[in-house]
Amino acid sequence: xxxxxxxxxPVRPELAKPAPPELAKPVRPELVEGLQGLGQAQPERGNFGKVAVLMGGESAEREVSLMSGTxxxxxxxxxxxDAYAFDPAQRGLHELKTEGFSRCxxxxxxxxxxxxxxxxxxxxxxxxxxxxxxxxxxxxxxKVMTKRVWTAxxxxxxxYVWLAPGNQNPEQVRAVPDTLxxxxxxxxxxxxxxxxxxxxxxxxxxxxxxKLSASYDPDVLCEEFIEARKSPARCWVPVPMxxxxx
Length: 246
Description:
The chain is an alpha/beta fold. It has eight helices and nine strands. The radius of gyration is 20 Å and the shape is elongated.
């Protein structure tokens, strides 16, 4: 991948505040049971110490994170957990240690939340946290790297073209449909929540799609479009919780 630092829009001032209660969707109380995976001993319900729900942050997915984090916080509190909102966009992570937090529930989305960076910081602070570790988070957040890993292991994945910052001139961009066919998907490889994603239906749409994607990430991922059959289903998967700190 390119060594260029990823670029994403700055956080709007009006977002630097807690999400209003009406934005928080109800979260199942069973979420709290995932905390049983934090720590060597299995604490009783509500006896987890001081828990920080990391939410907000500075990524382009800040609004989504505030919504989900507010829901998680409400669910934990309803089960007697001593939980507090913690927004890394407003406070330094070192305050987790100075303020005596015992564990972290990561409800951050996008960069500095799902890409291994906050996980690495929590490892250094010695604070257990939810979700995957540093390497898994870093690789999985980078869609191009993930596809390389899958391809190396022989796993099927849609065909793709990676446009590095130096490979985005009009001729190179226009040639992508020749390789992937139409329609195709253009998106930033290190974003989520469909941010910066475009379904390209014709050659004339390519330039604008790449421009939009590059406004969030200097690298651009173009993928073969896979037509999927819609099958509504309801399921619930417990959030994986693990102690990453020994």
